[in-house]
Amino acid sequence: MTVRRTSFLAAVIILLVGWSRSALAQPAADLDPRVMRLVESVSEERLSNILRKLQSFETRSSLSSTASTTRGVGAAREWILQEMRSYSPKLQVSFDSYLVAKQGRITRDVEMRNVMAMLPGRSPRRIYISGHYDTVARPGGQSRSNASGPAPDPDARTAPPADPNAPLDNLAPGVNDDGSGTALTIELARIFSQSGIDFDATLVFMCHVGEEQGLVGARLHAQKAVAEKIPIEAVLNNDIVGNDKGGNGVIDGATIRVYSEGPEDSPSRELARFVQRWGGRYVPSHKVRPMARPDRFGRGGDHSAYNQLGFTAVGFRESRENFVRQHDVRDTFEGISLSYLAQNARVNAAAAATLALAPPPPSVTNERGQPQITRAPSGYDASLKWTAAPGAAAYRIFWREAWGVDWQHELLVGNVTTLVLPNMQIDDYVFGVAAVDAAGHESFVTAYVTPPRTSTEIKTVPQKP
Ligand SMILES: [Zn+2]
Q1: 164-176 pLDDT, tens per residue?
Q2: Once rounded to an integer, what is the mean pLDDT over residues 212-219?
Q3: How many Å lie between the centroid of ligand 1 and the Cα of residue 100?
């Protein structure tokens, strides 16, 4: 009896592993033709027009003048608002405004306005696509920050202004940093709102302000989301994504980096794996390079403001940066590769559309936060349990050896919330679950992770000398 049962289980395992490998080899069946059309409708010409317009404001510094209708941050935010409003009556476009006190790199009390366009879905859970529209330029730019001295804060001011109350109106075109992420966000607001697709999640196209003063607009919005319990499920942040020629001469127009904070199976890491998986399927000509670190050395971006308040967020960064064209008057339209920026926009579109069509990711923990994974029933099996995700018609189980970064195996199961994988040692593999709807749209994975253990102090008895 025992022998027969064991051989039967072994056969099941071979079947499961064999099936999962063949499933990995045939991904095209899961693609949604509506998402394919959405991805194809990214327009280089429109990206070009947006970038030229953004450059025309000469500076979009959060500390620049707001009186002019053609120059400075006031003119720029008004144009972004009206441009997104023109795309569709379905888009709810507004300023997300804050009165910010003088502090840090903010030289005076100033009103800062994110520009946000919301495309309501059937559910309130939110997927963000974002960039920052503000700019900065300093003598020497980012290349001097990189080259001079040991590890300075590259975003810090070089000298205090003569009059702290005067607007900062020096030329700061910021076409790549971060006109590129802003143009990508605005263009995706257009194609999503005009797609006619009925998304489950609410999509938010967010142009942040104050990034160059310390992620100010993103921090304030994330704080508001915590206070108002706004369910932000994922943030795709794009900052410096439009140039394919490194300042050292190395050219790479075929890959994009995606940074995510750890630890290894954090939700942000799972979001990065999701971008690689679904971006790669819809845009196979562009390779996603996930980076297992929060951002580049000594540098930051708006996704970190969301991470720090507990939200799931990743940062897209071009693969080869040209530091001469960052935080510098030379960050102009000439430094942009439109075809490269368009590819990065397509990867964002594929990932965001799939996420917004899919059910939310399932929870794999109980009410005490413990992972619902055991060795039952034999003591040597992997027994997984998860909480049903609204709208799910099936679940996809992923696993990999515990010494690895990419999922190695996957198995689609029906509309169940438990699964036993016989004779799989849970200590040797990482397991995760994604929710899948009836049409095959998949959430990102929730992994079974051991919560960190706190150290217990051991009491000792004083010894006699
Ligand atoms: Zn930036």
Answers
A1: 789 999 999 999 9
A2: 98
A3: 20
135 CA from centroid of ligand 1 (Å): 7
pTM higher than 0.85, yes or no?
yes
Rounded distance from Cα 162 to ligand 1 centre (Å): 25
Per-residue three-class SS string for the chain: CHHHHHHHHHHHHHHHHHHHHHHHHCHHHHCCHHHHHHHHCCCHHHHHHHHHHHHHCCECCCCCCCCCCCCCHHHHHHHHHHHHHCCCCCCEEEEEEEEECCECCECCCEEEEEEEEEECCCCCCEEEEEEECCCCCCCCHHHHHHHCCCCCCCCCCCCCCCCCCCCCCCCECCCCCCHHHHHHHHHHHHHHHCCCCCCCCEEEEEEECCHHHCCHHHHHHHHHHHHCCCCEEEEEEECCCCCCECCCCCECCCEEEEECCCCCCCHHHHHHHHHHHHHHHHCCCCEEEEECCCCCCCCCCHHHHHHHCCCCEEEEEECCCCHHHCCCCCCCHHHCCHHHHHHHHHHHHHHHHHHHHCCCCCECECCCCCECEECCCCCCCEEEECECCCCCCEEEEEEEECCCCCCCEEEEECCCCEEEECCCCCCCEEEEEEEECCCCCECCCEECCCCCCCCCCCCCCCCCC
What confidence tens digit (pLDDT) does each residue in 32-57 have? Answer: 999 999 999 999 999 999 999 999 99
CA 360–ligand 1 middle distance (angstroms): 30
Would you place residue 15 in the very low, low, confident or very high pLDDT band (cuts 50, 70, 90)? very low
